[in-house]
Amino acid sequence: MPKAKGKSRRHRYSYNLNRKRLYRSARRRAAPRIACSHIRHAWDPHKSVAQNLAEMGLAEDPNKAVPIPKKLLGMEVESDGQQPGKKIVRKPYVVNEMELEASLPEKKSNTLSRDLIDYVRYMIQNHGENYKEMARDEKNYYQDTPKQIKRKINVYKNFYPEEYKNFIASLKPEKMEVQ
Name one GO cellular component term (predicted). Predict the structure, then answer.
């Protein structure tokens, strides 16, 4: 079967083709991507970005919203105490909801794998605080050094302090029975 025509030919870049025009029209129609749900619900697609943000009480340009005082620049300028161009906030609920969301405490999403927890508990249960013995244990599949094992145990202590205390407390009666 013969080759398809044009496959063996070298593809050349066309310098005369205007690619900007192809993408420009698609970019104009697309609405801005807004991450915050509060802003997304209050957004008016018929207004500009600056108008929408001004209505919500947000700043489009942070340099204009909080200008650098003239004193810091080396020039002292006296003002009569009035702020020029004070804007009216028509949608203050957006800023209030964002402040409320920001004031909520952040949940800890740090967790350890079940395998690591089981590994650490096994090592502590069988060897106590003897890290050299832990390193020689046959369950030490990854051949961790004593320092690496100690680090893993400390991570477990920091992530689950209550669980660790309960685990150590449950081990003490077992040791007393053995003696």
Answer: nucleolus
Question: In the structure encoding, which two tokens stand for residue 168, read together?
Answer: 């150590």
Domain boundaries, the chain: 20-67+87-103, 114-175
Q: Which long-range contacts (CB under 8 A, 24 or more apart) does 38-43 make?
A: 38/94, 38/97, 38/98, 38/101, 39/94, 39/98, 42/91, 42/93, 42/94
pLDDT in tens, 113-154: 999 999 999 999 999 999 999 999 999 999 999 999 999 999
